[in-house]
Amino acid sequence: MMNIVLMGAPGAGKGTQAELMQARLHLPHVASGDLFRDNIKRETDLGKQVKEILARGDLVPDTITIDMIRQRISQPDCANGVILDGFPRTIAQADALERLFRERGGKVDRVLFVKVAQDKLTERLAGRWFCKVCQTPYHVLWNPPRVPGRCDREGAELIQRNDDRPEVVANRLQKYFEETMPLIDYYRKQGLLTEIDGEQVIEKVYGDIVRTLDGQV
């Protein structure tokens, strides 16, 4: 069994790396944001609570988030371990996660922190635009449309999601670092944390992750 916690700020590229890790390790990728959306879509009791909380603009309480994680990692496909993305975010959540794993005879085996400087994160997030019709993603620096402001496929207007606007991005990142820096120190003191340079190209980031896990796989 191997349980991996994948940490990194919004825009650090955790999702991309998690998919690569999932293919190599044959472990499910469990992202807390995906769990929220799935439960809301399926209108579960937890999903209804989350929908109401988010509609008020409040943060989802730890009790609800932990319940969703508990239900997910109890599924048969998580019997040999899991790649957690976006959870835990706080020391209180980390303590709860340890209890959940102990109940199943496991523990957190490795914590990977994909580290990217805040100015780079802002550049990545604030440059993202999407087609309002087909949702094709673009980036003003790395994947710009042929015609500024228009989708290559549909010719439709490109829009920016509210949480990708520069002022919102700055607030998201500030909250992330305030919230998670204590958790990074928490895992570092346990000897579980490895920092990965997330400013490299995708292949090199993945290569560093693989080398880190080689002693564990």
What does this structure look like?
This protein has 8 helices and 8 strands; from the N terminus they run βαβαααβαβαβββαβα. It is an alpha/beta fold and 217 residues long. It has a domain at 2-117 and 179-213: P-loop containing nucleotide triphosphate hydrolases (Rossmann fold, 3-Layer(aba) Sandwich), CATH 3.40.50.300. The longest helix is centred in the last third of the chain and has 24 residues, at 166-189.
Q: Main traits of this protein?
A:
217 residues, alpha/beta, Rossmann fold, five-stranded parallel beta sheet, three-stranded antiparallel beta sheet, 48% helix, globular
Distance between the termini: 9 Å
Q: What's the pLDDT, averaged over the residues? A: 91
**Unreliable segments of 5+ consecutive residues:** none
Order of adjacent strands in the largest pleated sheet: 2-3-1-4-8
β-strand percent reads 15-25%
Q: Main β-sheet: number of strands, strand sense, barrel status?
A: 5 strands, parallel
| Cα gyration radius (Å) | 18 Å
CATH class of the domain at 2-117 and 179-213: Alpha Beta
Could you tell me the number of beta strands? Answer: 8
State the CATH architecture of the domain at 2-117 and 179-213. 3-Layer(aba) Sandwich
Find the CATH superfamily of the domain at 2-117 and 179-213. Answer: P-loop containing nucleotide triphosphate hydrolases
Structural class: alpha/beta
- Order of H and E elements: EHEHHHEHEHEEEHEH
